[in-house]
Amino acid sequence: MIKRLYLFDFDGTITKKDSFIDFFVQTFGYRHLLIVIIKNLPKVLSLIIRRDLGKLKEFLTSIFLIKKNEVVLFKLGNNYLNNHFDELINSVAVEEILRLQKNKENTLFIVSASLDLWLSHFAKKLKVKLICTQLEYKNETFTGSFKTKNCKGHEKVSRIKQVLSLEDFNEIIVYGDSDGDKEMLQLGTKTFYKPFRE
């Protein structure tokens, strides 16, 4: 009996575009997005100059979502996914996931730097497991910080090893599309780089 682990990046691999940017654009609109970013431009520019993309992502998330209720935020994520599924998701990738699920010995994970707000709904919809960047809540309210590190690069591998014993699998098949997936791709016995580009 061959046990296979399938690890899928999300943005650019399963999606046609970056879901992090798209979520905020679709939820708040370009104009509001631009106004808020301009108001916070010194901090944004300092993080860009320092190339601290994880902190930049956390800061941008905080200025739009801080102090919002957890239930409200997950509803926003669900609405985003439901309303933009076809324009966001690559149908070829979904077909591949559904095909692989037919073999009950296969274990499928999405491993992504994007947020649990919408990824949890996608993972539930396709019945796959999820490792991603998570928001931190206190008294059911978003604190403005991430609960986990930005799930990119080395952090993807670290998070995978926290929840999985890789030696339990005969094969590890990894799908990715960017430098942020490089370390995860190195785990694979078989790898697919930009496999679903239409």
Keywords:
alpha/beta, 9 helices, 5-stranded parallel sheet, 198 residues, 49% helix, single chain
What does this 3D model show about the protein?
The protein is of the alpha/beta class and 198 residues long. The protein is built from 9 helices and 7 strands. The protein has helices at residues 19-28, 30-39, 41-49, 53-65, 70-88, 91-101, 116-126, 154-163, 182-185, and strands at 4-8, 106-115, 129-133, 135-138, 141-146, 171-176, 190-193. The strands form 2 sheets. It has a 5-stranded parallel beta sheet, with helices on both faces. The radius of gyration is 17 Å and the shape is globular. The mean pLDDT is 94.
